[in-house]
Amino acid sequence: MEPAQMTIDEANADDAEAVWRIRYSSEVNAFARTKEIPALSNHIQWFTKAYIGGGLNRCYVMRTAAEVIGYCRYDVDNDGSYVLSIALDPAYHGQGVGSRLLGETLAMMQKGAEIHAIVSRTNSGSQRLLSKYGFTERTRDDAWLHMTKAIPV
Length: 153
What we know:
Acyl_CoA_acyltransferase; Aminopeptidase; single chain; globular; alpha+beta; 29% strand
């Protein structure tokens, strides 16, 4: 499916299960900092509290006509910056879909916002994607790259 046939919008409560399915697929979970898989009911409760109802966190989903195929979350950190989490259904990896998802959602973020991403050092695809959109390395350790980007004012 061509990326043009996909839409991106804010997540709603009905998207919680699809986001859980994508986030905890074995291919995506392999690169995650937290590998423990929560019960779906716990995830739905967390998702609803975090993203539904007008708080500062943001979760955008990419849809085909039939299903949610990816998400991009921006979670407010203690210092007021956002922490990015992006994932796609593995069937859509390597097709430019993640690039469109990240590019369009960055454009929706508040001007002047600072966004951080913590990326596995073994996840070269995500490192390339973030670099393409202006994220730069802030620090690194044995397992993770800490990247950052400021949304222009």
